Amino acid sequence: MTYSKQCEIEVKEIYNKFDASHDFDHILRVLKNANDIMKNMKDVNREAVELAVYLHDIDDPKYSEIESLSATEILTKLNVPEDLSVLVMKTIESVSFSGGNSKEITSVEGAVVRDADRLDAIGAIGIARAFAFGGAKGRKLYDSNESIRTSMSEHDYRATKTSSVTHFHEKLFLLKELMLTEPGRQMAEVRHEFMKQFITQLETETGEKL
């Protein structure tokens, strides 16, 4: 059994303790996105990508109240070789948006996983996830009086409870231009346009500028 298959078994129950925006189905979608991006790539460590996908949200501060092994501890438990573990952890560290304060990408694996994860944050599924997370955290659907932040620290990004629609402007609408791979850019274009249509329709139904 491969390390990534063992990892899948190890993390499934952990993710299913998260809300619907970051559950195991999210992991499976990100894995599908990663495989689509890698379809015509040759020089990429696919096992590192798979391991990084399975582990990329394990240490997410948003779910720190849920007790589980850390990503590093899981890699150690699975006896993953050190060089592979180092690549996996560097890949994971570069994934998070963090209010626009993302870390520098240093590998093709990092580019693949970052794009794959961000694709799941936009489009139809991105809309569903934004409102699922907002609902789980008690956030408003929208607030036309809320200021949209164009610059913020990672702490401010995580600590301030803005409405779900404000999250579109502070993160989701920015992701299309931040894609690193050509397949990622192509898929993001379609999903981005769908989100724009959604907000336009929401404005029509609410009679407010959102």
UniProtKB/TrEMBL annotation:
Domain of life of the native organism: Bacteria
InterPro entries linked: HD/PDEase_dom, HD_domain
CDD domains the UniProt entry points to: HDc
All residue ranges annotated as the HD/PDEase domain in the record: 19-131
Gene3D superfamilies listed in its UniProt record: 1.10.3210.50
Pfam families found in the cross-reference section: HD
Segments passing through the bilayer: none
Protein name: HD domain-containing protein
